[in-house]
Amino acid sequence: MDIFISKKMRNFILLAKTNNIDRAAEKIHLTASPFCNSIAALEDQIGDTLFTRKDNTISLTKAGQEL
User: Fold this and answer.
1) CB-based contact 67:46 (threshold 8 Å)
2) Which helix (H) or strand (E) holds 53?
3) 17-62 pLDDT tens trace
4) Are 42 and 50 contacting, i.e. CB atoms less than 8 angstroms apart?
5) Rounded Cα–Cα distance for residues 19 and 55 (Å)
6) Per-residue b or e along 53-63, where b marks 16 or more CB atoms closer than 10 Å to that residue's CB
7) HSE-CB of 7 using CA atoms within 13 angstroms
8) Residues 66, 22: Cα–Cα separation, whole Å
9) Is the pLDDT of residue 1 over 60?
10) Helix %, strand %, coil % for the chain, to 5?
11) CA 59, CA 45: separation in Å to the nearest integer?
12) Buried-state track 29-50, b at ≥16 Cβ within 10 A, e below 16
């Protein structure tokens, strides 16, 4: 597996577990912006949205649950 894909997947798993961008990013010593960029890159790579974002709530989409 490509190292960049594994980092994206790690970030996906962290966000899925915490449901909080700041907390997930903090765990790997990143700020929210590059963390969100990695999630967006994974979504682009997969071709589907993995999380819904509404106000301060983050939850997995059907595609995110399947992943």
Assistant:
1) yes
2) strand 51-54
3) 999 999 999 999 999 999 999 999 999 999 999 999 988 789 999 9
4) yes
5) 12
6) eeeeebebeee
7) 13
8) 24
9) no
10) 65, 10, 25
11) 19
12) ebeeeebbebbeebbeeeeeeb
Encode 1-10: b = buried (16+ Cβ within 10 Å), e = exposed: eeeeeeebee
Q: Which of helix, strand or coil describes residue 49?
A: coil
Domains of the chain: 3-66 (1.10.10.10)
The span from the CA of 41 to the CA of 8, in Å, is 8
